[in-house]
Each structure stands twice: as structure tokens, then as C-alpha cells.
Amino acid sequence: MTQDEPRDDEPTQPLTAARPATPPPTWVPPMTQSPPHRWAGLPPTPYAGQQPFGPPFGPPAGPPPRHAVPRGRVPGWLWPVVCVLALTLGVAGGALGGLVYERATDDGPGTVSSGLSGVDTVSEAPLTADNGSIEAVAARLLPSTVQISAEYEGQKGGATGSGFVLDRQGHVITNNHVVADADESNGPIEIVDQDGNRYSATVVGRSSVYDLAVLYSDEARGLTPASLGASQELRVGEGVVAIGSPLGLSSTVTAGIVSALHRPVTTGDAGNDSSYINAVQTDAAINPGNSGGPLVNLRGQVVGVNSAIATTGGGIGGEAGNIGVGFAIPIEQVRITADQILRTGEARYPVIGAQVQTGQNDGKGAEIDEVMPDTPADEGGLRKGDVIVEVEGERVTDGIALIVAIRSHQPGETVEFTIVRDGNERTITLKLGAETG
Question: What's the Cα-to-Cα distance from 276 to each of 36, 74, 273, 399, 404, rounded to whole Å?
């Protein structure tokens, strides 16, 4: 827009009166000039056609009427209206956000229809890669680690374990075996933070197959989420820290190294639900009560969930104390299972539809005992007596190793199996089925 300029056809006002001509005109100009308009400073907003700073060119036509608002000015009464409107919209937006979240949890308390993508998790490492301080790791992770107290066989607080804060929406990760009895009997479950505050919690969903459970407490939304890392980046000999509540001693920190990777282990007994873990093995001290707590790298990221220990009797689990061999569920599996549970309240695991011998440990592979009809194994041509020696090029030594290898994939994936049949090696491809558990 250009500057306002006087128009050529506008009348001007002479400084003195002109001598009238004959005949006298009907219009008589004023005999004196109006006093100049005094500029009262810059208005809050420049007039249209005016430079951002400075008065307009030429004198204005005169002050506006008292009831009129000069161009560019905002009426004083408008600001309270704008503030009230903004406040109203903010409250409405918050209510709408809460409504959206509540609708997202219609499948059960704590469920989120979009899974992990619908909650606020943290992946950025809180510490640098060259950090070697266990003290720094503990300072970062202790506020995100909780103790779990659950009813067991009718006794309130009869089961204790550990867990860590998954997100800012009040979800906590722990082991299935810590809360399974309380969930089945509708017994009370509590989350206890570092400061001793207790929050009532419910089970969103759990998986006995992967020994994982997701808890939810609306009261725990203010807790700090733990940063999620990657167990695939671990190296044998790398330093790790285990945090939890061993023997009921909350906020306990122990340190060690990664002593093995991709260790196939099973927990539980054969008569009950057993979990098969493609575990991270560590010599960090893990005892009963550490179950469900985080295994953390020195960058302060969770790389696994402590789940089991080896006992002097040769088994996995039990009530024996630490002997330097503990196992953690890789965080990649935790992400997958937690996402499934958040979406539907249930976890799914892959199957091929065949039974395998788990007692043999001669290192020659996993022998198939039975193939169920109309299953991926049946449709793919797997037979009783076949020995599976590789899954996707990775060696399989026994039945447990086969189960763990299959469960490292996801339902619907197409997986290549190398088998030995009648002394001959061949390859078959199966599309994995799915079951809930």
C-alpha cells in the first residue's frame, strides 16, 4: 500500500480571504485557518498506508468520533473476550484430549488403541557412550524403577518383584509371574516408587509365554519413564547394571557384565505355563525380587527385563540366591509384547503347529514329535521325525532352542527352516501362525 497523498481535486484552505467577485458566490470560504492537529504519538498498531514507525504523511482529517475506533486500534473490551475464549478453548481441548484417551482405552483399563505409538516413551540415551559411571546410571534409573507388591495365595503383598516405568501415561513393565496370581484372583497390586509412594495398579495384559506383564495406574502418570535401548547392540563383556528390589530391598543396584547373548532358557515347570527366553545372560547379582526390574547399559538405557536366575540344582528360577548367572528378556521382545498388550490387552506369539522334544540335549537339533493338521507345519510339508537344525540360518541345537528361535519372530512372518530327513538336509518355508498367551 502506498502513502496517503493529497488529491488534486481536494479544496485547499487559503491563509487570507479572497476578494469576492461579481456576482458573489454562494459559497464563502473560511476567513481563518484551523489550528494544526497535534500528533499524540504512535498508535499501538500503524494506520493502513502508514510506515511502521512515524506519523502519516500530511495532517489527518481530524480526531475520530468518541464512539469510533481508529483504524488499527483494538477496542479495550476485546482483550477480556479473547482471554476468556482462549481459556474456554484450552479447557475444551483438554477435555477432548481426555475423552480421546478414554475412548482409546475402551477395551480395558490402560489399553491404548495405537499401542506404543500412542504413549510417551523415551529412547534417547540419558548418558554419553563413554560413560563408565555406575553411579550416574543409578541416579538416572532409580526414579524410573519401582517395586511391585501383589497378592499371592490370598496374602496381600505375598509376592514382591520389580518393574520400570514405560511411559508418561502410567504404564509399568514387570514379569508375568510376579502378578499372575493376583490377576487371576482379582487381588490388590501396588506400585511403590523410589520415595515410598504407593499407587494402586491393575493388569492391562500379560503373557506367560514371554513372562511379561503391563500394569496401569492413573496415579502413576507423574513418574519418570525409563529410556529404552537395544539389546542387539550389546557385546559380551560390556558393563550392565541391574536395578530392583531383591529380597524386598527396594532401590537396590548391582553391576556386572554381559556374560552371554542369545541364551535359550525356559522358566517355570513343565506342568504349568513356561516362558521361553532368548535371554541376555549377566553376572550382575540378581535375586528373588529382582524379577521384572530393568537391566541397563552404561548409557542409562533399559536393554532387558530381569526374569530368571540359574540355581545350584541346575534349573532356572527357584528361590536360590545369586550365583552369578542371571537372565533378562531382550528389550526388543518387551517392545513387541507391550505394544500388543496396549492395543488389545492380550499378547500373541508365533507357532508352527508341531510338537517338539525338549528333553534331548545332544546338540543335533530339534526332533519333531507330532505335526497337527491344517497348521503351517502341515501345509509346509514338515513331518514327524524331521530334525530341525537351523532357523533362518541360525543353528538350532535342541527343542528349547527351536521354540526360542521361532518366538523371536512374529506371527505372519515367512521363516526358512533347515531340516534333516532320512539323512538328507533340505529347506522348507513356513508362514508362522499365531496363538494368544
Answer: 94, 70, 10, 11, 6
Do residues 352 and 432 lie in contact, with contact meaning Cβ atoms separated by under 8 Å? yes
Options 171, 177, 208, 307, the catalytic residue: 177
CB 252 within 8 A of CB 246: yes
- 207 with 164, same domain: the answer is yes
> Residue 103: pLDDT band by 50, 70, 90 thresholds?
very low
∠ Cα 154 321 258 (to 5°): 115
pLDDT average, residue stretch 128-142: 95
What contacts 83, CB < 8 A, 6 or more positions away?
A: none
Which of the two residues, 321 and 248, has the higher pLDDT score? 248
Tens-place pLDDT, residues 215-239? 999 999 999 999 999 999 999 999 9
Mean pLDDT of 305-309: 93
Is 177 marked active-site? yes
Range of the domain at 363: 348-436
Is 80 exceeded by the pLDDT of residue 394? yes
Q: What is the pLDDT of residue 176?
A: 96
Measuring CA to CA, how many Å separate 286 from each of 73, 260, 332?
71, 15, 21
Nearest-angstrom CA–CA distance, 385 and 372: 13
Same domain, 326 and 367: no
Give the C-alpha separation, 33 to 29, whole Å: 10
The count of C-alpha atoms lying within 13 angstroms of the C-alpha of 355, restricted to the half-sphere facing its C-beta, is 6
pLDDT recorded at residue 357: 83
Q: How many residues does the chain have?
A: 437
Same domain, 429 and 294: no
Q: For residue 259, indicate whether it is catalytic.
A: no
C-alpha cell at position 339 = 505394544
Q: How many domains does the chain have?
A: 2
Query: Residue 257 in 3-state DSSP?
Result: strand
Label residue 292 left, alpha or beta by phi (over 0 means left) and psi (-120 to 50 means alpha). left
Distance CA 168, CA 112 (A): 13
- Selecting among 217, 259, 291, 408, the annotated active-site residue is 291
Number of H helices, E strands in the chain: 6, 21
